[in-house]
Amino acid sequence: MLTVGEKAYCAALLALKNKEYANALDSFEKAAPYFSTNKEFTLYYETTRLLVEVKRNLGTLEIDEKLEIEEIFTHG
Amino acid sequence: MSQTASLQSLESLLETFLDRVVFLKEKKLNVLDGINRLDDIGLLATKGEDVTDDIGSWFAIHNKWLTDRTLKDAELNRITGMLSKIKREIRIDADSSMADQKISSEIDRWNNKKEQTKPILKLRRRPEIAQTPSSPLELDPPTADTISLFVKRLSRMTALFMDYSNQKNHILSVLENLLRKASSETDKDALILSAFIIYYLKQNGYKVEPFVKKLKEAETLYKKGMF
Q1: In chain A, which ranges are E strands?
Q2: Contact state of A1 with B39 under an 8 Å Cβ cutoff
Q3: N or C: which end of chain B has fewer CB within 10 A?
Q4: B21 and A37 in contact by Cβ < 8 A?
């Protein structure tokens, strides 16, 4: 049976393969407590974290939230 | 260069790096994904859910692993353990469906085939008697096998060392990189060579405890056959 950490690391790498960087970061964060001494893991984790931050700044991150737009008529 | 252009350049660089990571780990990632999926199926089976279709699909995709020798022993053992656990959960009897019986026989086939493909190395020791001068080079086949296997391993490790020591100033740098390879690629040659270098350094008065710790971590990863 795989550990929670192994499953999360696997999910992170698969997300990287699909270029789903925000999902990859979520999975890396779940796996982090189990791989804190693994330098390679830390390198991928930190690189992904930096990339996600850069993408947030550029506005190029994949959007997974829905924008809800509500029209308000103040005068009838 | 504007801030946006700098960020775009950094974005491209980081994406390229991560693409290369995925490319280098593609084979291992496929194996890991297959094991992970089987593990998920095993969890469903323990909850009493019908996994017949899931396990059938898994076999359809991964049966080739038995013949193309993609897997390491540790990975094969892990899969065999998971399949055995799933088989126990399915509980085949005379009333079981044809599909369940088919899955059960597939699991048996996998486990039997795995036993057949497992490489066997027999170590036999010659009697401890002095060799007669008339036959100084005569070796019985099992002894010759172990020696030729070791010579091949030594040759590969020498090539690995030459590769990793290129443009390095100190053997500790080489050792660091070899331990990293042993951990990240679960590479047996790198693992054995690292142990060899650590022992060499110990004999020469170096403090080796941090490297021994890393070696043990790499060995644990190697045994698990993961990452």
Answers
A1: none
A2: yes
A3: N
A4: no
Domain limits for position A49: 4-58
pLDDT by residue for chain B (227 residues), tens only, comes to 688 889 999 999 999 999 999 998 888 888 888 988 898 888 888 888 888 888 888 888 888 887 777 777 778 888 888 888 888 877 777 777 777 778 888 888 877 766 555 555 556 666 665 544 444 444 444 555 788 888 888 888 888 898 888 877 889 989 998 998 888 877 888 999 999 999 999 888 888 888 999 998 888 887 776 55
Contact B197, B178 (CB under 8 A): yes
End of a domain among B117, B149, B165? B117
Q: How many structural domains are present in chain A?
A: 1
Question: Are B86 and B107 a contacting pair, CB within 8 Å?
Answer: yes
Two tokens at A46?
């930190």
Mutation target for B interface from A13, A48, A61: give the one with most B CBs within 10 A. A13
